[in-house]
Specification:
By secondary structure, this protein is α+β, with helices and mostly antiparallel strands. The chain has 11 helices and 16 strands.
């Protein structure tokens, strides 16, 4: 090989590497000197940070493919999924409804022990608009533990495990309540109560966290907090769930959720809908209340051109957001999921976490910088 050829080949490799580095927006953003980013990245291990950023690629025929960039992604490093578990609850409630004749999102139902008639559409709206715990539990009693765990596995969305509700007096009770569906005030079908499978402890790293926790009596127990029998929804499974709702055509038939196109559009509308448009007080439930990326650290209104289809979660010092972010006006389109924990004192269940000073500023700035890099 001549020296000229060698130089030319080297230049090509440098060009390819430079383009690859330039295209890796996530890497560039995480190297930012912005203190909201740098403060977390300097202690990334302590914050158990995991991130997935997805570039949406469309060919000349509009066919979608994905280019994923990740940071510290590991399904065996446990984090508590909090309210993100409500995403598959809402989706699978609609999927189960589709197996029952004469039902729709507007079907009413009731739960054993409560005579109030609920509407599936209303409960799903609450789950996304303000991340309502009671609404998710109402939907859950309809789908149940075994159903959600089985369906997520069937669709290739494992690892995944739901082992407890997010509200109620006995959230871990494996006995689910009976539910009744109505059609024009007449009983359409009743699902009897059912005892679901016993929960086993997860064998993962990070299921025991911290140096202590507050017990039910408000006293600190100087032992790590045990998450091993709690819900498990790693970032890859969460991110892949959202992909299937936004871009079902990119997946095999057996990997898709079996819902109608009208149901899918209803889900998408609910996911991007702001609390004020869902009937909630705009002062208490500001635009960024459930939009951690880009707007989690501000109470300013979200510009109408920006749509964020997402599900957030925060509990026990952990914050998660999983989002598809679109701005048609500025030709922005990407997906982003991240989890971060901020618990400086190492005590769990004390409600002393650095959500406002560490987690929200990081997630918001992460979203903003990726948004700016995607502008075309």
């Amino acid at each position: 090989m001549s020296s000229i050829t060698k130089i030319f080949s080297l230049l090509i490799l440098v060009f390819i590497f430079s383009c690859s580095s330039y295209r890796n927006h996530l890497k560039n953003v995480l190297n930012s000197t912005n203190p909201k980013i740098k403060g977390v990245m300097d202690n990334a291990k302590q914050h158990e940070l995991q991130i997935i950023y997805t570039e949406i690629i469309r060919d000349k025929n509009g066919k979608v493919s994905f280019k994923d960039y990740t940071y510290n992604l590991n399904t065996t490093n446990y984090f508590y999924p909090a309210s993100t578990i409500k995403l598959p609850i809402a989706i699978l409630a609609l999927e189960k409804l589709n197996t029952i004749d004469n039902t729709s999102v507007n079907t009413e139902f009731s739960i054993e022990g409560n005579n109030e008639k609920l509407k599936f559409a209303d409960e799903i709206s609450k789950v996304f608009a303000v991340s309502d715990n009671a609404a998710s539990t109402n939907l859950f009693e309809f789908i149940r533990f075994d159903y959600i765990n089985q369906k997520m596995t069937e669709k290739g969305l494992s690892p995944f495990r739901m082992s407890h509700r997010l509200s109620g007096v006995d959230p871990r009770n494996p006995l689910v309540k009976s539910t009744t569906l109505f059609k024009e005030d007449q009983v359409l079908i009743e699902f009897s109560s059912k005892l679901n499978q016993e929960v086993t402890a997860l064998k993962l790293s990070g299921t025991h966290k911290g140096v202590g926790y507050l017990n039910g009596e408000g006293k600190v127990v100087n032992e790590s907090f045990d998450f091993s029998k709690r819900n498990y929804y790693p970032l890859q499974s969460l991110h892949s769930t959202l992909k299937r709702i936004v871009f079902p055509e990119a997946f095999k038939e057996e990997e898709r959720f079996k819902i109608t196109e009208n149901d899918r559009q209803f889900l998408l509308y609910s996911m991007q809908n702001l609390p004020k448009n869902a009937g909630y007080d705009a002062t208490e439930y500001y635009d960024g209340y459930c939009k951690f990326f880009m707007f989690g650290d501000t109470q300013e209104n979200i510009p109408p051109s920006i749509k964020i289809y997402n599900k957030v979660g925060n509990a026990y010092g952990t914050m998660i957001d999983c989002a598809y972010i679109v701005d048609a006006e500025n030709k922005v389109e990407f997906m982003l999921s991240a989890t971060i924990i901020a618990n400086n004192n190492g005590i769990f269940n004390d409600n002393v976490y650095e959500y406002d000073t560490v987690s929200l500023p990081f997630l918001a700035e992460l979203g903003r910088q990726l948004y700016e890099r995607n502008k075309r």
